[in-house]
């Protein structure tokens, strides 16, 4: 089996001087994190830098817990309507790191909008906790929670957005490509001009990428089957951000064309939770979309390209040859979920009285 890419890579080579550059932006964050569409590039960079700082202090300097315990005496509610390995482990360990108490509320513990309206649930739960990390179904559920909650909300996933995952992706990209740009001074110096090729479904992961990457100067080639287009509203938002940042967003149905000159190739599940009845049809519709060495050879990405996937992974989406290769940073990316969730919790939950 090919050697795995290391899950522990030194943070981008520029150290604390990079992290300090955007730190003041953390004080201007919106109360809630619904989508990175609501955040400025500087605020996104500040969260990535904060995550890198937490990772560096923990892994390189032995800081097992935050010395100031900013969540001491605070309870964070974890509302999970959908199961997750990385999100649950990352969130519970992050709260412990910050000195707080995690209260896990799974789909069998609480049913948002079923026996009690979502409005009533949000009002009641938020009156007893200091923050909510909610993994839900419909986008309307996360926006409804934010509307009626008296405590800050961080979106752990909904059908349109997944902000903490995309922050983890940005941290991973900064770590990998920062090592190749020793002259870089900022996060933007590292990521600006990189080419990301998305090959897969039109889902919440690519929507969130389009909410964040173009405004940070990252170019995107988005490849989905013709039956699964990116919504026009998402395309318009991405184009507006790309125009301001002088980046590019292009759309394809041919994966070979999409991966040409890519620095990063990304895919995700073709059958999300709740779409199981569509599996047979989707497997037909996504024929030719598996990321394989054959696709890479035909598409000719850039020399030092890497592969990313938010997990869990199914073999039809990417071959073992790619997934377990030196090109793959999927496990580094998975670990970085912890550090970016930790950064989000520290910024949004600890500053609240």
Radius of gyration: 20 Å
Query: Which CATH top level class of the largest domain fits?
Result: Alpha Beta
Largest sheet: 5 strands, parallel
Task: Quickly count the helices.
Answer: 14
Tell me, rounded to a whole number, the average pLDDT. 91
Strand fraction equals 5-15%
The named CATH superfamily of the largest domain: Aspartate/ornithine carbamoyltransferase
Residue share in helix: 40-55%
Structural class call reads: alpha/beta
Q: Uncertain spans, ≥5 residues at pLDDT below 50?
A: 1-19
Shape: globular
CATH topology of the largest domain: Rossmann fold
Kindly report the spatial arrangement of strands forming the biggest sheet: 7-6-5-8-9
Instruction: Compute the number of strand runs.
Output: 9
C-alpha end-to-end distance:
51 Å
**Count of spatially separate domains:** 2
């Amino acid at each position: 089996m090919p050697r795995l890419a290391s899950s522990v890579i030194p943070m981008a080579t520029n150290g604390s001087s990079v992290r300090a550059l955007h730190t003041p932006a953390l004080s201007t964050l919106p109360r809630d994190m619904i989508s990175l569409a609501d955040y400025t590039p500087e605020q996104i960079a500040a969260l990535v830098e904060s995550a890198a700082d937490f990772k560096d202090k923990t892994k390189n300097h032995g800081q097992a817990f935050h010395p100031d315990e900013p969540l001491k005496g605070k309870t964070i509610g974890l509302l999970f309507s959908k199961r997750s390995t990385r999100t649950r482990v990352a969130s519970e360990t992050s709260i412990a790191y910050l000195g707080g108490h995690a209260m896990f509320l799974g789909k069998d513990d609480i049913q948002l909008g079923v026996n009690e309206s979502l409005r009533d649930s949000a009002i009641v739960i938020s009156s007893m906790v200091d923050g909510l990390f909610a993994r839900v179904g419909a986008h309307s559920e996360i926006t409804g929670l934010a509307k009626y909650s008296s405590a800050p909300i961080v979106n752990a996933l909904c059908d349109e957005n997944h902000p903490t995952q995309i922050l983890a992706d940005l941290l991973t990209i900064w770590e990998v490509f920062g090592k190749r740009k020793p002259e870089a001074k900022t996060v933007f110096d590292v990521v600006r001009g990189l080419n990301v090729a998305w090959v897969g479904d039109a889902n919440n992961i690519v929507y969130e990428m389009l909410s964040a990457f173009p405004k940070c100067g990252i170019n995107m080639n988005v490849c989905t089957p013709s039956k699964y287009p990116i919504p026009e509203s998402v395309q318009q938002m991405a184009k507006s951000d790309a125009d301001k940042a002088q980046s590019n967003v292009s759309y394809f149905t041919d994966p070979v064309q999409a991966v040409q000159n890519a620095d990063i190739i990304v895919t995700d599940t073709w059958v999300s939770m709740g779409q199981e009845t569509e599996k047979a049809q989707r497997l037909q519709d996504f024929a030719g979309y598996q990321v394989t060495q054959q696709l890479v050879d035909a598409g000719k990405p850039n020399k030092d390209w890497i592969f990313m996937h938010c997990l869990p992974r199914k073999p039809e989406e990417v071959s073992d040859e790619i997934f377990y290769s030196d090109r793959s940073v999927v496990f580094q990316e998975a670990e970085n979920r912890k550090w970016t969730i930790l950064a989000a919790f520290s910024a949004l939950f600890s500053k609240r009285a």
